[in-house]
Design brief:
Helix 1 links the parallel strand 1 and strand 2. The chain is an alpha/beta fold and about 325 residues long. The radius of gyration is 20 Å and the shape is globular. It contains eleven helices and 16 strands. The strands form four sheets. Strands 3-6-2-1-9-11-12-10 form an eight-stranded mixed sheet, with helices on both faces. A four-stranded antiparallel sheet has the order 13-14-16-15, with helices on both faces. It has a two-stranded antiparallel sheet with strand order 4-5.
């Protein structure tokens, strides 16, 4: 029997059909004899009734009236709603489940509002639920400060919540469910033909996320490394294995799995509607020739280079209009 922490993000919870897929994932693990803990984000995206941005927009009617504590408490409400909805849905399907907030799950944090870090996690109530055959459905993205307030972990922080809970419980895997098949070499919305990776080591995943790849919260990769906890980025809407994120080497010091020299193209929004792109290469390789190839493509496309503070990466600032064509050109040149 294994213990699996499953984390579902907003797009995987957004509608009834998506939530039915969640039920199938939970039921499949339990049918295999495994215990399951769920970690959930708020449902949907801005404009959806209970999405985090929709809730925070309510405070914008009162400029200067909401401090950081107020904003974090408001931001945490979407996950509480998700936990209640999903626990009720599972129970209606014959799967005993109970919603847990950061308080009831024993999830402590430290640091600033809006960017807190996991601290001590007391898993006693989660363990008790599991021992009774009950699925704990835990709010992601948030924790309890030493003063008893609610603070959030930063956008994407439910990934880190799941890893912290997995580490506290000694889980066998933390599965991060997304609306894509795994970690792609580039954002598939920009580069539909981008291949997906079977494996990334913790440091490579952290570097991609830290440079802007939004498939995983950067803190989660470092926390998983510290706990030697294997993660899988898996698809909500099909049965693929996804991308395994684990140690670079096994217990004997041998490479666990090969990692390509070109890890991927991280993209993130920039000022003025531009797109920041960072081509990230594996540490321990010599990326000079490929970085020069990327720079040559940028010159040809009239795209500006940018500093990135990473000798194994090359950054660019591209207009939104050119972004898809330039990203495709980079991936075609670098992934070969």
């Amino acid at each position: 029997m294994s213990l699996i922490v499953q984390k579902f993000g907003g797009t995987s919870l957004a509608d009834a059909a998506s939530r039915e897929m969640l039920v199938r994932k939970v039921a499949a693990e339990r049918a295999a004899g495994n215990q399951v803990v769920l970690v959930v984000s708020a449902m949907g995206r801005r404009g959806d009734p209970y999405a985090t941005d929709t809730l925070l927009d309510l405070l914008k009617a009162f400029p200067g009236g909401a401090d950081a504590l107020n904003a974090d408490l408001m931001a945490s409400c979407g996950e509480v709603i998700s936990a209640c909805v999903i626990a009720a849905l599972l129970a209606s399907k014959g799967i005993a489940a109970t919603p847990m907030t950061a308080y009831t799950a024993g999830f402590g944090v430290s640091g600033a509002f809006g960017d807190a870090d996991p601290a001590a996690v007391n898993p006693a109530r989660m363990r008790a639920a599991l021992a009774s055959g009950i699925v704990p459905v835990v709010t992601g993205f948030q924790g309890v400060t030493p003063d008893g307030d609610i603070a959030t972990l930063g956008r994407g922080g439910s990934d880190t919540s799941a890893v912290a809970i997995g580490a506290a419980l000694g889980a066998d895997f933390v599965d991060i469910y997304k609306d894509v098949p795994g970690v792609a070499v580039a954002d598939p919305r920009l580069v539909p033909e981008a291949p997906y990776l079977d494996f990334l080591d913790y440091d490579s995943m952290f570097r991609l996320a830290n440079h802007g790849a939004r498939v995983l919260h950067d803190k989660s990769a470092l926390l998983a490394k510290a706990a030697n906890l294997r993660m899988r980025v898996r698809p909500t809407f099909d049965e693929g294995e996804g991308t395994l994120i684990g140690p670079a080497a096994d217990a004997e010091g041998q490479a666990a799995r090969p990692v390509p020299s070109f890890l991927g193209l991280a993209t993130s929004p920039a000022e003025g509607g531009s797109v920041r792109m960072v081509a990230v290469f594996a540490e321990g390789t010599d990326p000079a020739a490929k970085i020069e190839a990327a720079n040559a493509l940028a010159r040809e496309a009239g795209v500006l280079g940018q500093p990135c503070g990473d000798s194994h990466a090359a950054a660019f600032l591209c207009s939104k209009e050119k972004s898809a064509a330039f990203a495709s050109a980079l991936v075609a040149a670098l992934a070969g």
